[in-house]
Amino acid sequence: MTATATETKRVAYYKGCLASLSAKELDSATQALAPKVGLELVELESVTCCGAGDIHEAEPDYYLHLNARILAYAAAEGVDTLLTVCNVCTLNLRQANFILIGDSEVRARINENLVSVGVPAYERDIDVRHLLWEIAEGEGYEKLKTAAHRGLKGLKIAPFYGCQILRPSKINGFEDPDRPWSLERIIEACGGTPIDYPAKIKCCGFPIIQAREETALGELIQPIEQAMEAGADCIVTPCPLCHLSLDAWQSKLKAATGKDYGMPILHLSQLVGVAAGLEESELKFKRHVVSVKPVIEKLQI
After folding, report:
1. For the whole prediction, is pTM greater than 0.85?
2. CATH assignment of 9-130?
3. Domain 148-299 sits in CATH 3.40.50.11810
4. Sheet architecture: strand order including 127-130
5. CA of 224: how far to CAs of 216, 230, 265, 266, in Å?
6. Contact 86/239 with Cβ under 8 angstroms?
7. Do 84 and 172 touch, CB atoms closer than 8 A?
8. Hey, where are the domains in the chain?
9. What is the distance between the terminal CA atoms of the chain, rounded to a whole angstrom?
10. Nearest in space to 184 (alpha carbons), one of 204, 162, 159
11. pLDDT by residue (tens digit) across 117-146?
12. pLDDT tens digits, residue range 208-219?
């Protein structure tokens, strides 16, 4: 059912691993923000990790079962949408959905295995959507503009999309991966000033940090340096893995370059939450490695 101006949209909420553990501030901010942008979150309890990229590459059939299980539990809630707050979760679940919807034999085999271990079969299709997409257009966007009553007072914000919310476009398909617009539109709706720079659609380096740290840091330094050169006050990202890279690994950049960048990194839910007047207890900025204090002081919150 499509929400009207007086309704909320009931969605299954899959927060994934990072928002459950090392990025709990993302979950807290999302939970507090949701009703302000017309979303009723039905949190999924009996679900696991989506497998990230590791299980997908090493054990593709196991990956498919993991994600089919999540989709099945979401569909069992009687909703039409599975909401995510992670780029990697979004891509994994949408890829699995693409396979399951397109191949009836695979779906039947996966469902048989799920039922054999007490998991409901995935019999009713569900649409996997990132929070970014929910509030960048349509009813969610209209409610966002109302919710962002406190505003961002012209704060200069560099959007960082990351890889897996844009590509492959065949699976995600929300916007042009080379010319995305959703983060900029949300920033402007919240009263901020979006900063344009080439690296906003690049990789953050997270997938290869363990194997090739030097190469990963070469990827990481690009958005931070470019955002700083463009005059950004902070960077916002819709992905907790990108947030982890951009926030926590600035210490690695300092060790490698001798330069203390000190660029604040905000989750999408936190940025919108600031504009909507969420409390510090909900935003949990103290969990960040790089201090967000300069941003808060500019907004005089």
Report:
1. yes
2. 1.20.1050.140
3. yes
4. 39-43, 9-14, 81-84, 127-130
5. 13, 10, 10, 13
6. yes
7. no
8. 9-130, 148-299
9. 37
10. 159
11. 999 999 999 999 999 999 999 999 999 999
12. 887 788 898 999
